[in-house]
Structure formats: structure tokens, C-alpha cells
Amino acid sequence: MGSTFEPKSLRIGVDVGGTNTDGVILDPSRALEPDKGIIAWHKAPTTTNPSLGINDAITTMFGTASIAPDHVASVTIGTTHFVNAVVERDAARLSKVAVLRLCGPYSKHAPPCVDWPDDMRELILGYYALLKGGLHVDGFLISDIDEGQIREQCAIIRDKGIKSVVVNGVFSPIDTVEQQEERAAAIIRAEIPGCDVVCSREVANLGFLERENAAILNASILAFARRTIRSFQDPIKRLGLHCPVFITQNDGTILSGDMAARLPIRTFSSGPTNSMRGAAFLVQSELDEAILVVDIGGTTTDVGLLLANGFPRQQAAYSELAGVRMNFSCPDIKSIGLGGGSIVRDGETLTVGPDSVGYKITKDAVVFGGNVLTTTDCTVLADPRIEIGNRDLVKAALSDEGIAKFKAAVRHKLEKVIDTMKTSPEDLPVLLVGGGAVIAPDELKGASKVLKPKWSGVANAIGAAIARVSAVVDTVKSTETKSTHDLLEEICQDAIERAVAGGASRSTVKVVEMDTLPLPYIANKTRFTVRAAGDFDYSRTDLFTVPLETTTSSEAEQQMDQYEKTAATSPKKTKAEPKEIDIETYVPTVKNRVWYINETDLSWISIGCYILGTGGGGSPYASMVRLREMLRRGAIVRVVNPYDIPDDAAVGCGGGAGSPTVGIEKLAGDEMVDAQKELYKLCVKPASHMIAIEIGGGNGLQSMIIGASTNMDLPAVDGDWMGRAYPTKWQTTPVVFNERTPIWSPSSMSDGNGNVVIMPKATSDLQVERVLRAALSQMGSSVGCADPPVTGAECKRWAVEHTISQSWRIGRAVAKARKSNRVDNVAETILAECGGPEAGKVLWKGKIVGVERTLRMGHVYGECIVEGADVVDDDNGARIPHPSRKDESAKPQFQGKIKIPFKNENIAAIKISQSVVDGKAVESEGEVLGLVPDLITVIDAQNGEAIGTPEYRYGLLVIVLGIAASDRWTSERGLEIGGPKSFGMDHLTYKPLGRFVKPQSVIDEFDVSV
Predict the structure, then answer these.
(1) Phi first, then psi: what are they for 348, rounded to 5°?
(2) Is 737 exposed, middle or buried (0-12, 13-18, 19+ CB in 10 A)?
(3) Are 470 and 532 within 8 A, CB to CB?
(4) For residues 956 and 959, what is the distance between their CA atoms, to the nearest angstrom?
(5) Which of 38, 278, 597, 716 could be disulfide-bonded to 459 (CB atoms 3.0-4.6 Å)?
(6) Which helix (H) or strand (E) holds 220?
(7) Cβ atoms 997, 874 nearer than 8 A
(8) Residue 280 — very low, low, confident or very high, per pLDDT cuts 50/70/90?
């Protein structure tokens, strides 16, 4: 048989999982044959030392198929070892890391690992320093690096014995000229010989904290990665194989041994991707479109979308591992509690899972003589074709009605998760793999066809064997002198060259993904993302091996064995868990009519601010992290009721302005406080209090940050100038009242890097907005603003009062719903905190089925389409309608579609009316469900969190809430400034969706006066 194989014609794929090591040998030239070119396969328990398991798998397969070493072109290995080291918090496999930021005056309030779990931070972060350096979004320098400063820090790191260093520069992913991270890395390597240096731009893309987090995790596992990869290569050499050894990364492509040793984090979550691509390979002759891969195991079902380009859909923005938030690209996988071992309970309502007997199925399941009814038992009972265990043992387990309920429950769970993962309303092929696939029906709603291929049990190893080479370019370019089309062509060519450099055969490389996104508030700047991929060039010899350490093979094996032993005994926690808050009995600290904010209050306020942001205002996350750190360091944050402040008080105001894209990369420095200091050089009277310009989004926390005892030490007023978020400064209640004009001058604006704009006077508030917006683009597109103080009397008349209290109550409602597992009624709970049914309503529930965005005059305009659907997470769906009567209650409450137009913030919710004209379906605007100035806010139906307009994407299950606007906005002038006409929607007439109910003050409710 061996003579039938050509030299260097076979590919070996091995998946080293936490439970099993799977192997497969395939001949790509025979992929269209019935056996898909699979020559041999193997499955066995994973060994403590992966080298032994790999050796056994390949040796067994060689013996089965009579294969000689010279027949093998490559060995590709998928592994969970690196990600497991992080998840298990294994001190033996994780090294201490030092972090050097090139950031100038920025990010000082969010130090490295600021949002990590305490035990992870203490385990990994050994030292950090904030140094000169960094770029603005337009490529101009924040400041150049200081070589002497870097050398000073290297001496400290060397004295601490730390051998892993991360360099992270502001906007380093677009730094193609200054090369600041690379220059700093060269200095570090010279000053600390033998150390590992990770440049953040090699690890992930735009998103400063999240990229840094990924780079730190990567640096921490480098030493372990080298040893692990050596343990992978050793058996290859022992078996006489002279071929490259690759490691799979999580986008379905390969890394050379050298690259995997430098960037092991890229292997995180590669298992699901390998499974998806392996499954698609098994049906490649039948499909040439996007495929939903449904992997049903013993306990869970994992569903992912394999796009038509052959790569998995990636998560939209952020991923989380071991409590660490990253923007590192990971496949978008949704898991539900359904598997072959899921426990079935029969009663008035039959339930399936989410608990499972797991690996004990051959002992506990009824068909195997146990006494726990599982999905496997019910499937055997329902389908006489299936031969698993002893059918006779399960005969009396369920009645015919019970079987029908079981089938309906399983079908409902699968159909619901499939619908969530789809990228368009059209049906898609569904590919069932995994040991539990037998429980799935042959037909599913939303599936154009359901396929259950042979060999699916080793799909992971198959996916590893067929993995390709790819490269991604994510950058920001100026469109001032070159067209978007020309720039895109250049970037595509760059991506192709990078793929070739990574080992791809030039003739096979193609661009498989491209995206462009104009940046709001930034003139002539667009973000480009391009991915290119191709087959490996087996004529290359420069990527075959990884430089190995000086340890001998036997020493390395002993080290690998020792890792596992140490992992079992290493402490998992280094600090006691914080005491859990009882939401029902929690009482905020309010003394003598002053509310002292703590971390619990802050968490709830942040949730509420984003919901009140009506899709805009930017995520409060970064501001929340900053204020939380201030509190932990002893800062005192006070909030007072607007009605308690004296009439002659001076109530200042401040907030941030700029592009959200800049905000995720150039984290705040002291620009907010700098702007205040510069403004009060012009003002006769200093501020005595501080109020937020808008409660919606990140600005909702700024009055508390500016007023904290470690900044200006002023009490924040429980209110704001909008009661929501609006896109411009002139859309504020002081302008609505128009008692004097202009309100917003003098004003100041600071970029936090020594550049300040002062506007001592202006002809109108609209002119203030126009001038400051123009300056904004020349100041890095992210600034802190300070507005002149108003009197206490004016504040009482103009402010939308008690909005910090309202945010707190909304956040508490969401937290309560999550803790009690009642997210299904979170919308109603939120509305109860906003005045009840008379003050708001659920406008719609459904799934986002369309999103369009355009950029005009610095603002992002767009439209979101939501199709009515059942968003309650009732996964069982086991209720069977009576055949003799029409089941009206089974119909969804919300049918049809609505559209939500937005200009940074949501403007309206309008029902789409469908009619037939000349035989064609025509859509037009129908009933207006909600309209500005009323608040139209979209929340995630799965967790109750707000979804901002930049985060809208197909498939999200959402609830659209309407909340009555403050009576400050419903006057004739209020509607002129903040109503539909101000957004160019003159054809719509505002009708209140409810009656405004003033938010209840936390201070009034909980005050303890002495």
C-alpha cells in the first residue's frame, strides 16, 4: 500500500486536546473520493507529556496505513496547552512580565492589568512604567521615545529578574514610519540579554488596553511555549520525518514553529476553528457557500459560522479569557447547554439540560443500565434506527407525548442558536458534527439542508491538516491625497506580501476579507482591515524548525511532566474573594444629604449611563475603570441633590469630545482637569460644584471624575444638561431655556499634551460647537472640554435632575435581573425604575437583520432594522399546541420589522409597512413607535446591557425601549433643538410615548442625617 503514495504528498493533522489526542493522515489529491482522502485516523486519551501522545498517534497511523516518513509533506498540530496554562492560572507555566508603555501623558489612570482579576494580575504583572512615546491617529507624534529613559527602566527590570517584557505604544498598529515599539525593543534586548520582548502591534490591533492585555498574556507563556513546541517537534524527528511542523491558530491558518514560539496566543481557541474547517472539508463537494457548523458534544453544543471564504466569522469586538478582556481575534462561537449527556426531566413542562452526566454517560444513562434519563436515551427511544446501548431498558421512559415534547425541545434549542448565528435571513446549510450529533433532527428551521458527515469525530485533526497561511493588515490611512479605492489596493497587496512572507505560495494567495470604516470627527481618515490567505509553499525550507533551547530532549520531557504536576498543586487564588453584595438589601452611603459613591454604585451607574445614552455617548467602560481605580486608591466622590445647592453656587461642567476610535486607543490623561484649570483662569468665580454635560455614555461619569477629591474636590450634581446623549453641545437644556446667550463661552479645550484652545467669547452656542469641532481634528481627535459655570439657581431651573440616581436604579435593575436569572423581564424592570408603564414602554423585541452606516459632517448616520422575534431565552420550547385549536399564544408579540435611524444616537423607532404594488413587495414607513426627544434605547436581550450604535450587527437579539423625555425637552423650543427637525426628519411629528416621571433621588430615599 505504501507504494501508492508520492513523496511529500500526505499531510498529518494532530489535535492535542485536554481529553483526547486525535490524529489523521490525509492525501489532499484524493479529497473528492468517498473517503475524502483520509488514509488513517487515531483517537486516544491525551498524555501528560504531549510528545508521547503525538508519537503514539503518528506511529499507530503509520502502522495502520503502511506509510513511510518520506511520504509526509507536513505535520500540523492544534493544541489547548497554551490557553489551558492561562485558564488554570498555572504559576509553573506563566512567567512574570514587565510592561513599558510608550504613551506620553496618556493612559496614566488605567495602568496595565487594571481590569484583570486580582489573582491573575498578581501572578503575571511584575512591573510597569509609563514612558515618552506614542502617536496620534493621524500619525503625528505625541512624543518621540527617550532612549535614556528606556535604559533606566531596563536596569530596574533586570534587577527584578524579569525576563519577559511587553512594549505597547499608542496607535502602534499604524506606526509604519517611526517604528517606536521596534526601536524600544532593540534597546531592551541590548540591555537585558536573553530576555523575551513582545511588541504589542505584532499581537493584536487597535484597542490600547485590550491589545496590551493580549500582549502580556502572550509574553507570560513564551518560555512554556518554546518547551511545548519542542515537545511537539521531538517525536517528529524521532520518527524520521523531514518536514515542517506547524501549529494552528484560531482563524483556521497555520503558524510556523518559530512564529508559534513568538506568538503562542494566536493558538487560543483554535480547536473550534479546526473543527469547523475540518467539518467543511468533509462536505466540500456538496457546498460552496457559508456553513453553520453545529458541534454537539456530551455537555454543550458549540455553533460557529464558516464564511464562504473558508474562514470562521470572528467576534465583533472583544473577547474574554480567564477574566481578561482582549481585542485579539477569536472565532465567534456560541455555546448552549445541550449535548448527548444532557439530563431530561419530564413533567408538566419537559426540560432538556443544561446539566449533563458528561463523561459518565456510559454509566449513568438509562440505555447503559443507569437511572438518569438523558438526551441519548430519548433519541434511542424516538428513533428505532439508532443502536446505542440497550433499547429495552428505555422503553417505558417517556410516553408518545413526552417523546414529542423532547423532539420539540431539542429542535427549539438548535433552531434558536442557529438563528442567532446567521448573518442574513436566508437559510444556510447546517453541518452536524461531534459525538452527540445523533440527538439532532434531520431537518431544522433556518437550515437549507442538514448534513451529518462521516469522520466528524476527528474533524479537529482534519481541520489542522488542511490549515492555510494568512496575514491581516489593520491600519488607518489618510484619504486626502489618495482615493479609498487606491489605498485599498495598496493595503491588499501589503496583506498578500505578508502572507507570502509567512510561508504562503504566492500563486495561491487571495484576499479573502476587506473592510473600510470612515472615522467620525476626523477629516479624511479611514480604517482599513484586509485579510489574505493561501496554501503553504512546501518548497520553503526557512520555516521548518524553531530555534531550540540548550536543554536536552530528556530534560525537556522532564520539564513537561513537571508542569502538569505543579499545575495540580499551584494555588488558584492569592487573595480572598470580595464579599458578594446582596442587591435586595444593599443601601448606598448617604450622610447629611451627600451621597458617597463606592464601587457597587459605580458599576450600576455605568450600566445605566450607557442605557440612557440611546446608542451614543460612547461606552462608559474606560471611564468606569478609571474612576474605580481612583476609589481604590482612596479618592472620595460626592454627589449632591441639585435642590440642595445654594442659588449663588458656581456649577461647572466638563466632558469629553472626539472619535470613539481614538478613545479606545489613546486613553485619557489629565485633559479634563487641564481644561478646567485653563478655563478658571478666565472666570472670576471658581466652580463650587460640577455637573455632567450629558448622562448618556462615558460623559455621564465625568462630573464625578473631575469632582473627585484627588482632582478638583467638588461635589457632583445629581443631574445633567441632556437627560440622555445628544451629538452636539448646543443640544442642551441651558440652550433650550435661552435665558441668556451664549451659554457656552468662555470655554476651553485641552488635548492633555500641552495644547489648549480657549474661546473667550462667541456669537452663539452653535458657533462654539462649530469652532471647537474644527479644532478637535487638529488636536488628536480626542479632547477634554470645560464649560463656564452657571449659578445654582440656573442649575435648578435648567438641569434634568436626578439622572445619576436614575442611572444607578437602571443599573441595579439589570444587576438584579442577572443575579436572579430573570433577564427575560429586564426591560420591564428597567422601565419600572424610569417611572413605570406611564413613562415608558417596550417598543419592540426582535433580532437585528440589517445595519447601514454612512459618515456625514463628522457624524455617523445610519439605520438599524429589527425583525420581530421571541427573544426570551426559553431554550426548551417543549410546549406542544393542542391539535384541535388555533394556538394564538404561540405567535410572537412583535411581528414585522421596525427601523431605527440614528445620528450617533438613535433618533426614532418606526414600523415598516409592507404592501404589494404592481406585483412587487414595497416597504414604506408606517407607525412611529418612538421619536426624539423621547429616549429610544436598544439593549441586549441576553444580558440587559446597552448596545451602542457602533455595536449594531446582524443576529443580535435586542429589546427596544422607549422612555419619556424630560419635560425640559417637550416645549416648542426644546423640540426645535432636540426633536426630529434637528436631525433632518421634518416629515415626522413628535408625539410623546408617555408622561415624564421625574427620577427618584437616591439621596432623598437613603439619606441618614446626623
Answers:
(1) -60, -40
(2) middle
(3) yes
(4) 10
(5) 278
(6) helix 208-220
(7) no
(8) confident
Most confident of 262-266, 433-437, 933-937, 944-948: 933-937
| Residues of the chain above pLDDT 70, percent | 87
Asked which of 198-207, 514-523, 567-576, 844-853 is least confident by mean pLDDT, the reply is 567-576
| Mean of pLDDT values over 588-608 | 97
Q: How far apart are CA 235 and CA 78, in angstroms?
A: 15
User: Of 926, 960, 958, which is closest to residue 848 (Cα–Cα)?
Assistant: 958
Is the preceding peptide bond at 734 cis, omega within 30 degrees of 0?
no
Instruction: Tell me the per-residue pLDDT of 104-148, one tens digit each, with 9 for 90 and over.
Output: 999 999 999 998 999 899 999 999 999 999 998 878 899 999 999
Instruction: Decide if pLDDT at 789 tops 80.
Output: yes
CA distances for 786 relative to 669, 714, 751, 756, angstroms? 15, 15, 12, 11
Q: Residue 112 contacts by C-beta under 8 Å, 6 or more apart in sequence? A: 99, 101, 125, 128, 166, 212, 216
What is the pTM for the complete model shown? 0.79
Residue with cell 511532566: 561
The three cell numbers of residue 325 are 478582556
Radius of gyration of the chain (CA): 30
Query: What letter would DSSP give residue 135?
Result: B
Name the one residue in this structure whose C-alpha cell is 473627585: 708
Which residue from 966, 969, 698 is spatially nearest to 839, judged by alpha carbons? Answer: 966
How far apart are alpha carbons 324 and 100 in whole angstroms?
Answer: 19
CA distance to 109, 168, 423, 753, per residue, from 103 (Å): 12, 8, 38, 11
pLDDT at 388: 87
3-state SS class at 490: helix
Chain centroid offset of residue 342 CA:
29
Distance CA 721, CA 1009 (A): 29
Scanning the structure block, which residue is given the C-alpha cell 495502520?
64
Question: Above 70 in pLDDT, residue 237?
Answer: yes
Residue whose C-alpha is closest to residue 964's, from 994, 991, 936, 929: 994
Q: Cell numbers at residue 478, please?
A: 489618510
Instruction: For 710-726, give the DSSP string.
Output: TTT--PEEEEESSSS--
Q: Which three cell numbers stand for residue 507?
A: 500563486
Mind listing the pLDDT tens digit for each residue in 740-785? 989 999 999 999 999 999 999 999 998 998 898 888 878 888 899 9
Q: Give, as one character, the DSSP assignment of residue 946.
A: B
Which helix (H) or strand (E) covers residue 189, if one does? helix 180-191
pLDDT band at 793 (very low <50, low <70, confident <90, very high): very high
For the chain, helix (H) and strand (E) counts, in that order, are 27, 40
To the nearest 10°, the Cα dihedral for 715, 716, 718, 720?
Answer: 150
* Cα–Cα distance, 79 to 50 (Å, whole number): 9
Q: Is residue 512 scored above 70 in pLDDT?
A: yes
Residues of 650-666 as b/e, b for ≥16 C-beta within 10 angstroms?
Answer: bbbbbbbbbbbbbbbbb
Residue 176, number of CB atoms within 10 A of its CB: 11
Q: Of 353, 372, 354, which Cα lies nearest the Cα of 362?
A: 372
CA distance 350 to 348: 6
Nearest partner of 98 among 176, 184, 180, 172, judged by Cα: 184
**Mean pLDDT, rounded, for 578-593:** 88
Cα distances (angstroms) measured from residue 840 to each of 872, 962, 965? 20, 5, 9
User: Which residues have CB under 8 Å from 2's CB, separation 6+?
Assistant: 65, 66, 67, 68, 71
Tell me which H or E stretch contains 416: helix 400-421
State the SS3 of 321-345: ECCEEECCCCECEEEECCCCCEEEE
Strands ordered across the beta sheet of 333-336: 333-336, 301-306, 291-296, 428-433, 447-451
- pLDDT tens, 303-338? 888 777 666 776 655 677 778 888 766 677 777 888
User: What residue type is 475 in one-letter code?
Assistant: T
